[in-house]
Amino acid sequence: MYQVVGKPNSRVMRIIWMLEELGEPYEIIVAAQHTDEVTKGNPGGKMPVLRDGGTIIPDSVAICTYLADKHGKLTAPAGTPERGRQDAMTQFCVDEVEGALWTAAKNDFIHPEEVRTPEIRKTCEHEFAKAMRTLEKHLADREFVTGAAFTVPDLLLGHCAGWAKGAKFSIPEGPVEDYFARVRGRDALKRAVQRGKEATEAAEAA
Ligand SMILES: N[C@@H](CCC(=O)N[C@@H](CS)C(=O)NCC(=O)O)C(=O)O
User: Fold this and answer.
1) CATH 1.20.1050.10 domain range(s) in the chain
2) Does residue 159 line the site of ligand 1, with CB under 6 A?
3) Residues 6+ apart with CB under 8 A from 201
4) Residue 14 is inside which H or E element, if any?
5) Ligand 1 contact, 33 CB (< 6 A)
6) CATH fold of the domain at 81-186
7) Stretch 144-154: mean pLDDT, rounded?
């Protein structure tokens, strides 16, 4: 059984969602960043970490890609042009969408206060809005970013959409908002949120 290490209300949710999409059994080991459970899998102390038997893999994007490839679902096969385009969308999400959200978060409450630059929020909002305009062009009239099938970058973009709403970044009405509603309305995400909530409550009660 897979073990997902970290706190569910973080990028860890991406892995829980992914495993729900795949229908694979897993358990959640609730652990904070920089604790031994996490640093054993990532010396940088960042979550999530995935344990697959004796194998430990850090990084949410690497883990989602690994699981998709391993189970042959939610991805085009490696080495195909479709996969090249899919990976470009994954990278777009990480660079342009998550990059803006993460820089804003780090300068709001993550970094030590003395090195934060809160004014950077304005720049991040500008970058995020630009990324949303680009996403609309990528989507064109597609159901998902690579076409008719839901793949890894849709999951990552959907996770970022929840993050953006929580951080009060504005999501444009129209095709992008409809796309995010489609992606975030998936049953697998609902189950993942419920599993994450239960695991968090059980860890707090222990
Ligand atoms: N690129 C990494 C980033 C992981 C990351 O920054 N995770 C956050 C929680 S969402 C964390 O553990 N932060 C602690 C830190 O930055 O020291 C991934 O996608 O897994």
Assistant:
1) 81-186
2) no
3) none
4) helix 12-22
5) yes
6) Glutathione S-transferase Yfyf (Class Pi); Chain A, domain 2 (1.20.1050)
7) 97
